Amino acid sequence: MGDSEGSHLNSPLLQKLADGGYLSIWNDYGLYGIVGAVILGLSIPLLLSGTIMGKKKGKQRGVQVEVGGEVGYAMRNRKSTELVEVPWEGATTMAALFEQSCKKHARGRFLGSRKLINKEVITGSGGRKFEMLHLGEYEWETYGETFDRACNFASGLVKLGHVKDSRAAIFSETRAEWLLAFQGCFRQNITIVTIYASLGEDALIHSLNETQVSTLICDFKQLKKLAALSSSLETIKHVIYFEEDETTIDSGISSNMSNWTVSSFLEVEKLGKESPIHPRLPSKTDIAVIMYTSGSAGLPKGVLMTHGNIVSTAAAVMTVIPRLGINDVYLAYLPLAHVFELAAETVMLSAGCAIGYGSAMTLTDSSNKIKKGTQGDASVLKPTLMAAVPAILDRVRDGVLKKVNEKGGAAKKLFNLGYKRRLAAIEGSWLGAWGLEKFLWDVIVFKKIHSILGGRIRGMLCGGAPLSRDTQRFINICVGAPIGQGYGLTETCAGAAFSEWDDTTVGRVGPPLPCCYIKLISWEEGGYLTSDKPMPRGEVVVGGFSITLGYFKNEAKTNEVYKVDENGMRWFYTGDIGMFHPDGCLEIIDRKKDIVKLQHGEYISLGKVEAALMSSNYVENIMVHANPFHSYCVALVVPSHQALEKWAQEAGIGYKNFPDLCQKDEALAEIKQSLSKVSKTAKLDKLEIPAKIKLLPDPWTPESGLVTAALKLKREQLKSKFKEELEKLYG
User: What are the UniProt keywords, alphabetically (predicted)?
Assistant: First the structure.
């Protein structure tokens, strides 16, 4: 942003104060502009001196270390010379951690859920029906009550007939009962198979049959899907469903499930409470979870996680989040079948935090399923901590900018001024980032934006996919709290790297977590070497306590990407390309599978190009495709309905519906021009800019099987579905 002092003096609002006084500011910015100018005018000397004095010396966050295994450039977290394995002595398994935390925080709030007050179905344009919900306040259960319920459920499973050493699966949206069932199973050392609620039928059948699941735990709406697949599910004996308000199992569903014992969650709890069974607790090396990845290609793979793997990640993350404890409230809405959310909730229960459950469709007051005039989950819960995936943060950013643009005039100018000042402060000094000026602009401009997520957020973590620098900084400023990126995979039990809260940089994923080492190994074919200057580059390899055992019934794939060194440490080869900064922080810069060689030998990184093109306001989603027999790349683009229709209206383009608009040559030309513009900003090479594009009107969702639950592209499925469109682009 240039010189810090100059950035203060170049403020347009302050320039107006110098040139034309308060009348000029009133005309352009209104009352808030006057207030802002007065406050800033009074505080400029302090802010200028604070900016200079507040400059923070670069902090060393990672330390180079010598470790075994393949030669490479390895780092550890600066905080500890020994890797962290447990959060406290004795908490070596998920069962032990849960029991000890529940007893320590017995009277504290733990699991919160909202009751449905009423529901109405409205019909939108095109005849589509939408469900709108009015939800009540959060109702809470304490840690002590939750532990008792988990014990009852565990006993109920045994009384129901669940056989020792057979597996149970959870197939449900995220909710309090998901975690209850999860912890209950561990009381009897039952291995849990986790399955995304959005998983397609083939993948669901594959996952359940491959693991020979005997007990399936699901939410009520999955019963119909399961009933239709009952003849294909070979080993299921018991189905336990989470109750919903005013729902009953119809006769058609019941007849298809006649070979199963079907019980409600509450019935199993009651059974266990009446006939308690002594627990059969696991060891740290026992398999806790077989987690089926959503998979970007082919059928999903089941990752074998031990109790020790999950506990070590939680222990490591607890050392990174400052002041984590009983005063924190966490908003849970991401899929618990994904390792990111599972690890986050394990951290929260370890620290005695309250966890309030919501959903992506009811998150804010303006979410799709929230009845107008009622409150979304964040407004009611007022969380202090949240996790998010980039797609959700992109939507928050787009929503805020839409509101700002709609208001226009003085409000828009003041927002832009405040954003520019906060950006200059964050990138110029530590004091400017979190000191007096932050407080001033939060009061003047950003307070209403803070309230979108409840107004109390003190920290956010983003994971699951790369977060763009622009969105990271935007949320950082507008939410008024640190937002860091985490990096991990199902195979590392989410434990790899984590941004520290006082790190105001963007685009990086932080130093290694204290539970693991991260090593870069040269990939000569791709031109990434650990000897590269000024920063070493190479394939990211993670080793330590969080590294899982491998893939269920897939020894060949396990041996391909997992290695054990001469010291007995297990390493996972991620396929991601990383770069270490001088302070020990990792930046993910590429992926081996996303790199394609074009006709004349040039390499193109599909992920890098997609990340750059996503910054166009016309792009909802995009897949870049490169063919080795051609000298250029092409792209499939899902346009933003709102942005493209607004442009069409302003440009006077007539169209019948959105699919018709996507066929218009003018729309194609407008989006191509936008992609060209953002390509230049991102400094993409000419061959990286798609020569041809195809506009696709329908969104890519996990339900359609075209993106994962973390909203990452499923390249092979997209290539297969749009084979004809891609062939025409090269024709």
Answer: Membrane, Transmembrane, Transmembrane helix
| pLDDT higher at 299 or 417 | 417
Structure tokens, 280: 């059969």
Q: Is residue 538 part of a domain?
A: no
Phi, psi values for residue 198, rounded to 5°: -95, 5
As a whole-number percent, the residues of the chain with pLDDT over 90 amount to 60
Q: Is the CB of residue 700 less than 8 Å from the CB of residue 722?
A: no
478 domain-assigned:
no
- In total, how many domains does the chain have? 2
CATH number, domain at 320?
Answer: 3.40.50.12780
* HEC-encoded secondary structure of 602-618: CEEEHHHHHHHHCCCCC
CA distances, 48 to each of 41, 44, 52, 178 (Å): 11, 6, 6, 52
Last residue of a domain, which of 318, 333, 357? Answer: 357
Q: What is the pLDDT of residue 19?
A: 38
> What's residue 297's pLDDT?
55
Please, are residues 43 and 55 in contact by the beta-carbon 8 Å criterion? Answer: no
Question: 615 lies in which domain range?
Answer: 596-730
pLDDT-based confidence at 114, cuts 50/70/90? very high
End of a domain among 319, 336, 357?
357
Q: What is the dihedral of CA 155, 159, 161, 167, to 10 degrees?
A: 0
Whether this model's pTM surpasses 0.85: no
Name the DSSP letter for residue 54.
Answer: T
